[in-house]
Amino acid sequence: MNSFVLNNNKKSGAVKVMITPCQPKTLSHLPKRPPVDIAFSDLMYTVTEGTKNTSKNILKSVSGRLRSGELTAIMGPSGAGKSTLLNILTGYKCSGVKGSITINGHERNLSQFRKLSCYIMQDNQLHANLSVEEAMQVATSLKLGSDISKDSKYQVIQEILETLGLQEHRRTMTSNLSGGQKKRLSIALELVNNPPIMFFDEPTSGLDSSSCFQCISLLKSLSRGGRTIICTIHQPSARLFEMFDHLYTLAEGQCVYQGSTKQLVPFLGTLGLECPSYHNPASYLIEVSCGEYGDNVRKLVTAINNGKYDIQVGKPFPQPENLNNVNQKEIMKSSNLSSNFIEIDKLSKSVDSDSLLQYSGNTFSKPDDAINTELSSIKTGNLNNADEATDTLLKNGLPSSQQRYATSEFAQFWIVLSRTLLFSRRDWTLMYLRLFAHILVGFLIGSLYYDIGNDGAKVLSNLGFLFFNMLFLMYTSMTITILSFPLELPVLIKENFNRWYSLRSYYLAITLSDIPFQAIFCVMYVGIVYYMTSQPLEMFRFGMFLSACLLISFVAQSVGLVVGAAMNVQNGVFLAPVMSVPFLLFSGFFVSFDAIPIYLRWITYLSYIRYGFEGTALATYGYNRTILQCHQIYCHFKKPSTTLRELDMTDASFSLDIVALIIIFFVLRISAFIFLRWKLKSSR
Ligand SMILES: Nc1ncnc2c1ncn2[C@@H]1O[C@H](COP(=O)(O)OP(=O)(O)OP(=O)(O)O)[C@@H](O)[C@H]1O
């Protein structure tokens, strides 16, 4: 808003009104960044698909340039390759990519580039159980490091929230934010370390027109701060379209337009494609790209030299002779259209001579010098100063240029651990439902098997009780992890890609975060059932019983982590219980070890349930336990040693059971980490 100042001149009695134009909101802590221009040349992306491994070209030798200080839109019909191009430019996709990407004229060093850029994905990947301010605090702690004081971090948060219009929602839980507010929060979180390059995948998807406008205005103001802002967009309204500085349009994996948004309509006019009055130029270009006005894609690709030309205001359009010299063979080869080459050749000539010259007011002299110099430097491989540009940027711009992350791994671990503990406290299902289930089932089992522990006539029922403990502890800790862990993955993928923390720190934090809660629930459950069922009230037996139960729940939780890391919730919820069946069958409760066929005995060694069951049976009946009470004429299992003999556990060792459970625990935790790393890589 403009401000009005009234100066009352007492002598003359005249009132002078001074209008001071409003100052754009600035982010004082976000200084202007050194400009970073990205150029890509002959970018090809190929995937193999089907059983015959046929290759499919998704990007076909596209070139282009994205400048700092500009808001660039990557546009195109559905399936044109927008997201693919964005994923390649961000470094999210690397395999199957050919071609060159340069930063300020030097070959891109991906590791350094990722420190300069951030990628805000389409779905706002936010943790639901944090308030806006808490989410910002986590982001500042992880991204700004310990060199910056708490006060400064607080200032950063306040300033960004103020600028992005989130100040009044700072105490709102992210799950309660509107779509537009979530989008702004996603931007706010990444703005914390002021990256000079920001990529956005469909930032306006799911927003109403007003929120779209706000969102694009925000991106525009970020670009005005010297940043390179690139976003994919489906089909912007005319109002939004005007706000973009630069447009890069793809169709069928090729570039059909690159240049200023203002020059789009005149440029299309030169090719005989007249955008009707009052028609949204963006929609018109999409319609042309979809073939609604005939097969114009090849004409456009040739005219723009598949992205090698850049149409800019005040600069001439591509020269006809340059168009003739276009390396069409290369384009056609890459786009699997070589058979039509002769036809295209004719077509481009006719376009050049007829249409392009008709456009008045343009002298067809030279193509954009800058982009040609850029592209020729890429082609000649003049990369002696490779990485210098990004090096300088990192030295000038980012707090700790030498490190991969802004904070140490220990600090990352600590911050993620604190955040996870905060979620856990707020997560009703994870905490209170689990607590309630352990107490309720504890009392239920206690009542069902009430006072049987010292009764020689009820030993078989007591063994059933021991087995049920294993079953209950296994399923509660396994299923909760299978259900909750995969939901964390999208946020992990985003935060890890944007260099908030290493996978190792994250994994260690989430691995340790749930252990105390699981331990408390298990102690409560075991305490209730042990006392109510009248198991021997000796401290060392209770300790042994509890440690076997605790280890079973930790191991089952690890199984949940492996399954959660390796597959999605639907598959995991079905497969994990099914996969547990052999372990239950070979636990020693249903069939004693001697009765198992030799060729199947190896399964018992893998069955963690067996070690847990054996451990609790030894704690209950081993170690010279005195004879049980018998209120009937004959009690076969009066002597605890008889029970152990029947279970084939006479020579069993409790310490071995514990060691086996600890080994299985570590093997599973390491496997879960390996699966998680594989999942992060394969998701790209
Ligand atoms: N891994 C893959 N295997 C096979 N085809 C793929 C693969 N990845 C992408 N594609 C194909 O590449 C094309 C471009 O996909 P991309 O997601 O980049 O399109 P888009 O322009 O972003 O589309 P939309 O606007 O609908 O999101 C599509 O036809 C898609 O089916």
From TrEMBL:
> Ribonucleoprotein: present as a keyword of the record?
no
Q: Could you confirm whether the keyword ATP-binding appears in this record?
A: yes
Q: Which domain of life is it from?
A: Eukaryota
Which ranges carry the ABC transporter domain?
38-277
Recorded GO CC terms: plasma membrane
Transmembrane ranges? 431-450, 462-485, 506-532, 544-566, 573-600, 654-676
User: What GO terms are given for molecular function?
Assistant: ABC-type transporter activity; ATP binding; ATP hydrolysis activity
| Alphabetized Pfam families for the sequence | ABC2_membrane, ABC_tran
SUPFAM superfamilies, sorted: P-loop containing nucleoside triphosphate hydrolases
Matching entries from Gene3D superfamilies are given as:
P-loop containing nucleotide triphosphate hydrolases
Its record classes its membrane topology as: Multi-pass membrane protein
What protein family is recorded? Belongs to the ABC transporter superfamily. ABCG family. Eye pigment precursor importer (TC 3.A.1.204) subfamily.
Q: What is this protein called?
A: ABC transporter domain-containing protein
